[in-house]
Write a structure and sequence with these properties.
Aspartate Aminotransferase, domain 2; alpha/beta; single chain; Aspartate Aminotransferase, domain 1; globular; about 400 residues
Length: about 400
C-alpha cells in the first residue's frame, strides 16, 4: 500500500500507470483527445469518467494524472489538479471558491502576481482585506460573516516571513472559511500544511518540483470534492490545465526532489550562518537563523529554514547591483527552486509594480537580494557570495 511508503519512495513510484507494454519509465501521452469504441461509450464517458478514462487533454491525461496522484500522495490530500503555471493554480483555487459579495482575508506579504489576482477578484465584486500575516490578532479582527477564504504564503516571497498555518486555520475554520496556502517556499518536502489545518495547498511546480528550470507548471491539492468539483470545472473550462509534456517533466523531477531540496536547504543554512553579521549587510534573513522573528515557528512547522536566503545590502540598490554583478556561480534570474543557484532583486523585478510604500510595508528594501540556493558545492557557493559581498 502506497500510504505505508515514505516520501522518497513515493516520489519515485507513486501514481504510476503502465500501458500494455510494461514500460519502466513513466509514459508520455502526447494526445489532445481519446478514441471511444462506440458512440454509446462516448456518451457514457461524458456522463461519468472512470479513473483511467479520459476525454480531452484539457480535462485530464494519463501522464498528468500520474503527476496529480503522486503530488497528492506526498502532500497528504485526497486529490490534486495540475495547472499550466503556478499562477494558474492560485487563480483557479481562489476563483473556484468565491463569488461576488464574498470576502477574502489575505496576508499582505506575498508575491506581486498573487496580489494582482486579489485585485482582479476585487474588480469582480469580491471584498479583500490584507493583514500582517504574522499577527493572528489581525486575522481574527478581519474575519466577517461573509469571509469565505483565508489565503497566504506559508513562507512569504521575498521577505521569508513564516505564517502560522495552524493558528490561521483555527481562526478561519471557526468562521467557516477555507484555508488556501501557497506553499512554494516550503516545498512539498518540508510541508506539513495539511496536517496543520490547510484545506487547499497550491504550488508553482516550476520551482522545486521541476528543479531544472525547464517548464512552467502548477498544482492545487485538496479534497476530492473540491478538486473534481468546482476547481476542475473552473480550470478545464477556462483552459489553465497542464500540458502532458510538462507533467512528464514534473514526474521525472519529483524522483530527485527530496535529495535536491534537502541539499539546497543545507547550503542555505550554512551560508546564512557564515555571512550573518557581514559589514556589507544590514540584514541576513533566513528562518533557520536564531534571530529570525519566526525561527521557532519555522522549525516547528517545517523542521528546516528552507532553500531561500535574503541578503539586505546596506548600500541600497547600488550595492545590491554591485553584489549581483560580481556573482560568478549564482545566476541573476527571477525563478527559484532550481538546481542552479539564482539571485533576484525583488524591488526592480518580481515586485516592481508595487509602490514604494507597499514594498516598504512587506519589507522589500532597495538593498534586498533574494537567493535561491541550488545544488552546487556549498563551499563554492559561499566563496562566490563572499567575494560578491566584498565587491559590493
Amino acid at each position: 500500500m502506497t500510504q505505508e511508503w515514505n516520501t522518497r519512495t513515493k516520489l519515485v513510484h507513486d501514481g504510476i500507470r503502465r500501458s500494455q507494454y510494461g514500460e519502466m519509465a513513466e509514459a508520455l501521452f502526447l494526445t489532445q483527445g481519446f478514441v471511444y469504441p462506440t458512440a454509446e461509450a462516448a456518451e457514457a464517458r461524458f456522463i461519468a469518467s472512470g479513473d483511467d478514462e479520459f476525454i480531452y487533454a484539457r480535462y485530464g491525461n494519463p501522464t498528468t494524472r500520474m503527476f496529480e496522484d503522486r503530488i497528492a500522495s506526498i502532500e497528504g490530500t485526497e486529490d490534486a489538479f495540475a495547472t499550466a503555471s503556478g499562477m494558474a493554480a492560485i487563480n483557479g483555487a481562489l476563483t473556484a471558491l468565491v463569488k461576488m459579495g464574498d470576502h477574502i482575508v489575505a496576508a499582505r506579504q506575498m508575491f506581486g502576481s498573487c496580489l494582482h489576482v486579489l485585485k482582479v477578484l476585487q474588480g469582480f465584486g469580491v471584498e479583500v482585506t490584507l493583514v500582517d500575516g504574522t499577527k493572528l490578532d489581525e486575522w481574527r479582527a478581519a474575519m466577517r460573516p461573509n469571509t469565505k477564504v483565508c489565503f497566504f504564503e506559508s513562507v512569504s516571497n521575498p521577505g521569508l516571513e513564516v505564517i502560522d498555518i495552524a493558528g490561521v486555520a483555527e481562526i478561519a475554520h471557526a468562521g467557516g472559511a477555507v484555508v488556501v496556502v501557497d506553499n512554494v517556499f516550503s516545498s512539498p518536502i518540508f510541508s506539513r500544511a495539511v496536517a496543520l489545518g490547510a484545506d487547499v495547498v497550491a504550488y508553482s511546480t516550476t520551482k522545486h518540483i521541476d528543479g531544472g528550470g525547464r517548464v512552467l507548471g502548477g498544482v492545487v491539492c485538496g479534497t476530492r470534492a473540491f478538486i473534481r468539483g468546482p476547481l476542475e470545472t473552473y480550470v478545464k473550462h477556462t483552459g489553465g490545465a497542464m500540458s502532458p509534456f510538462h507533467a512528464w517533466i514534473m514526474l521525472n523531477g519529483m524522483q530527485t526532489l527530496d535529495l535536491r531540496v534537502r541539499a539546497q536547504a543545507a547550503s542555505a543554512a550554512m551560508i546564512a550562518s557564515a555571512v550573518a553579521g557581514h559589514d556589507k549587510l544590514s540584514r541576513t534573513i533566513y528562518p533557520g537563523l536564531m534571530d529570525h522573528p519566526q525561527h521557532a515557528l519555522a522549525m516547528a512547522q517545517m523542521g528546516s529554514g528552507g532553500t531561500m536566503l535574503g541578503l539586505d545590502l546596506a548600500g541600497g540598490k547600488e550595492a545590491a547591483f554591485r553584489f549581483l554583478n560580481a556573482l560568478n556561480i549564482v545566476s541573476i534570474s527571477n525563478n527559484l527552486g532550481d538546481a542552479k543557484s539564482i539571485a533576484t532583486h525583488p524591488a526592480t523585478t518580481t515586485h516592481k509594480n508595487l509602490t514604494d510604500e507597499e514594498r516598504a510595508v512587506i519589507g522589500i528594501t532597495p538593498g534586498l537580494v533574494r537567493i535561491s540556493m541550488g545544488i552546487e558545492d556549498s563551499g563554492d557557493l559561499l566563496a562566490d557570495i563572499q567575494a560578491a559581498l566584498s565587491a559590493a
